[in-house]
């Protein structure tokens, strides 16, 4: 896990594991939507999720192009965009994939304003 808003494409023509910006035709729209979410999240907007084992990982403005972060061949986000014209972003909301129940109220507070801002854009 991490704390970042990721946008298409997740796959790249080279399939290099990381570091390839794979720009879609709607790249500016995706960046706009990802920033709408990230800019309202207290951790995501810093671009420094500080996840255990990945303390040096950074994401400018709390967003990333999927393939630039890591290449995913055949992912749903790209499939839905290419074949169904669905504009999806992927939200990584926590360093922990399964946070304890006791942390859920804090996670809600971290994401509430982001979710409302995102819904307003939709």
UniProtKB/TrEMBL annotation:
It comes from the Eukaryota. GO terms for cellular component: extracellular space. Pfam families: Peptidase_M14 (PF00246). One of its GO terms (biological process) is peptide metabolic process. Residues 1-122 form the Peptidase M14 domain. Keywords: Carboxypeptidase, Hydrolase, Protease. The active site is at residue 92. GO terms for molecular function: metallocarboxypeptidase activity; zinc ion binding. PANTHER family: CARBOXYPEPTIDASE D, B, PROTEASE M14 CARBOXYPEPTIDASE. Belongs to the peptidase M14 family. This is CBPD Carboxypeptidase. The gene is Cpd_0.
């Amino acid at each position: 896990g991490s704390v970042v808003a990721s946008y298409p494409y997740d796959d790249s023509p080279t399939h290099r594991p990381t570091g390839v910006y794979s720009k879609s035709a709607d790249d500016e729209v995706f960046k706009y939507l990802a920033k709408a979410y990230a800019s309202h999240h207290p951790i995501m907007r810093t671009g420094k999720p500080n996840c255990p084992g990945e303390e040096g990982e950074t994401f400018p403005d709390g967003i990333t192009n999927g393939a630039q972060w890591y290449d995913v061949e055949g992912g749903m986000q790209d499939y839905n965009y290419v074949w169904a014209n669905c504009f999806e972003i992927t939200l990584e909301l926590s360093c922990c994939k399964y946070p304890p129940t006791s942390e859920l109220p804090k996670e809600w507070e971290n994401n509430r304003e982001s979710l409302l801002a995102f819904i307003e854009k939709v």
